[in-house]
Amino acid sequence: MIRAHTAQAVREAEAPLLESGEPLMARAAGALAERVADRLRVTDRDRSVAADRVLVLAGAGANGGDGLHAAALLRGEGIAADAIATADRLHEEGTAALRAAGGTITALADTAPGMLEQQLATTTVVLDAMLGLGGRPEVPAALTPLLAVVRASGVPVIAVDLPSFVDATTGQAAPEALVARETVTFGAYKAGLVLPGGAERSGAIHLVDIGLAPHLRAAPTVCRLEDADVRALFPHPDRDASKYTRGVVALAAGSEQFPGAAVLAVSGAARAGAGMVRALAPQAVLDLVLRERPESVGHRIERADGGPHAIDLAAVGRTDALVVGPGLAPQDARARGGVELLRSDRTGEHAPDRTVIDHAGIARGVIDAGALSVLTAAHRFGPGVVLTPHRGEAERLAESLEVDPELPGVQLAPALASATGATVLLKGAVTLIAPGDGGPLRAQDEGTAQLATAGTGDVLAGVLGALLAAGLNGPDAAALAAILHGRAGRLASHDGLHPIVALDVAAHLPETIGTILAGAQP
User: Fold this and answer.
1) By three-state DSSP, how is residue 335 classified?
2) Residue 302 has what pLDDT?
3) HSE value, Cβ hemisphere, 13 Å, CA-based, for 447
4) pLDDT band at 42 (very low <50, low <70, confident <90, very high)
5) Which of 46, 163, 174, 248 could tie 137 with a disulfide, CB 3.0–4.6 Å?
6) Does domain 245-517 sit in CATH 3.40.1190.20?
7) Are 337 and 308 in contact (CB under 8 A)?
8) What pTM does this model have?
């Protein structure tokens, strides 16, 4: 699991080491140079790395020093490395080291028209070492043309510690900030690397150990699950497993207007490994579901009203998790009834129909799409209930809960979780998961823009319901569902190369799961 920290937490961890004279910059520069050299060797197997050229965009601070020292070390390996000074002053020792190694440092102001383009034409890798932990998401006007030229050149960029003009704590990024192919970060993951804004500019993140770990006192503010976590968390059936022990998920989904939502949600649950999937819907919707997924069990619910008792789970049978909302209008009785079943503040008179409460007294379920509009400030849930809004739904929900709808996602998701007690999965290019119990935010970035098509959210709701039914807690189930859903979308679209439809995502879930569990790279 990636555990990411604020800029302040990293500074506090560095302080005692710097005071004691630990050579943090030497360690960072050495690891950076080694990583760049290794990357060039892999890329250029058919030619000598002596043909490669590295250009460092060096700023004034320690980040620029890391880049300059690394360039000097690369020259010692026979790799040409030079620098462009993006500030009036540079790190003195780094400057001296690069010049002593035979490298050149050119002030940006001294570059003649066309000079940068010519230099980049023979450059193999650009090192972005302009700003580090103290960077702000604002690009000075003097640097805008430089960034534009680098971007237009297409030369791969490796960010030093984190991309410049990205806030290390919030991820907020200047629109002009360079997009790195890889970020070599030192000592600890910075929260801004995995949050929206920074995540889109960081590329693959490579963590270098420079001795900070024992001094990181503050808890991480953001976490991200990785493949090893999926392998540890994904529910594996035992030899004596049955459909009931694997988890039974019921889905109140699909309507006359959106009948396909039930097909998609049921397919997501079934393909994610649920032991049994129940569909709670009108007969016309059930007919569609059973044609596509004949292994599911249909439960006819025709009533347009019925209040909190519209869904009678005691009559339906064993249910370990309830998904309510895909394809439902807010006034649908199933939306209101499903929300009532998942509330944590219900009185004892309704207890007999609360079969979605597990042996530990935790209600498990998903509130999605139309059912989100049912929620009011009076509703309270436990962290085993997951709300799954996209940005527009989150803003409407915020208004009804008297939360500021203009908050950025990294603040909005936790605010909604605090207001409801539920775990909140805020869908987006980077999916944010705010635990209902106030734990660290989670940020998953596995998706592709091809997932921005109708019905993929219904598949996600089904996947999430299956994982909750199998016994995972809300935050783990939400993060796992985001990973599997995003990877399946990538697999279906050949890594984003061509369009997909929602059922393609469901169809690729088994292969996605098998690939991760087998330990193969995505």
Assistant:
1) helix
2) 79
3) 25
4) confident
5) 174
6) yes
7) yes
8) 0.92
What is the three-state SS of 380-435? CCCCCEEECCCHHHHHHHHHHCCCCCCCCHHHHHHHHHHHHCCEEEECCCCEEEEC
Distances in Å between the Cα of 38 and the Cα atoms of 24, 48, 71 are 21, 12, 14
Q: How confident is the model at residue 519 (pLDDT cuts 50, 70, 90)?
A: confident
pLDDT of residue 45: 59
Interval 23-49 mean pLDDT: 85
Q: Order the strands of the 105-107 sheet from edge to edge.
A: 105-107, 80-85, 53-58, 125-129, 157-160, 182-186, 204-208
Q: Which residues are within 8 A (CB) of 405 and not within 5 positions of it... i.e. 6 or more apart?
A: 394, 395, 396, 398, 399, 412
**Residue 288, burial from CB neighbour count under 10 angstroms (0-12, 13-18, 19+):** middle
- pLDDT tens string 178-230: 999 999 999 999 999 999 999 999 999 999 999 999 999 999 999 999 999 99
Per the CB < 8 A criterion, the answer to whether 413 and 433 are in contact is: yes
* Average pLDDT over every residue of 325-345: 93
Q: Where are the alpha helices (DSSP H) in 47-206?
A: 62-76, 92-100, 115-121, 144-153, 191-194, 199-202
Q: Looking at residue 305, what is its pLDDT?
A: 55
Q: Work out whether strand 441-444 and strand 431-434 pair parallel, antiparallel, or are unpaired.
A: antiparallel
Q: Which residues contact 8 (CB under 8 A, 6 or more apart)?
A: 169, 218
Residue 264 exposure: Cα atoms within 13 Å on the Cβ side: 24
Report how far residue 68's alpha carbon sits from residue 82's, in angstroms, rounded to the nearest whole number.
8
Report the distance separating Cα 466 and Cα 458, nearest Å. 13
Closest CA to 216 of 185, 179, 178, 187: 187
Count other Cβ atoms within 10 Å, centred on residue 55.
26
For tokens 């570059």, what's the residue?
111
The residue to which tokens 């994904």 are assigned: 234
Pairing, β 441-444 against β 2-5: unpaired
AA letter at 318: R
The reported pLDDT for the residue numbered 51 is 77
Query: CB-based contacts of 110: which residues, under 8 Å, 6+ apart?
Result: none
Query: From 3.40.1550.10, 3.40.50.10260, 1.10.1040.10, 3.90.226.10, which CATH number describes the 2-224 domain?
Result: 3.40.50.10260
| Helix %, strand %, coil % of the chain (to 5) | 45, 15, 40
Domain borders along the chain are 2-224, 245-517
Query: Cα-atom radius of gyration of the chain, to the nearest Å?
Result: 26
Report CA torsion sign: 389, 299, 250, 348: positive
Query: How far is the C-alpha of 59 from the C-alpha of 82, rounded, in Å?
Result: 14
Residues 132 and 166: beta-carbon distance below 8 Å: no
Q: Cβ distance 261 to 369 under 8 Å?
A: yes
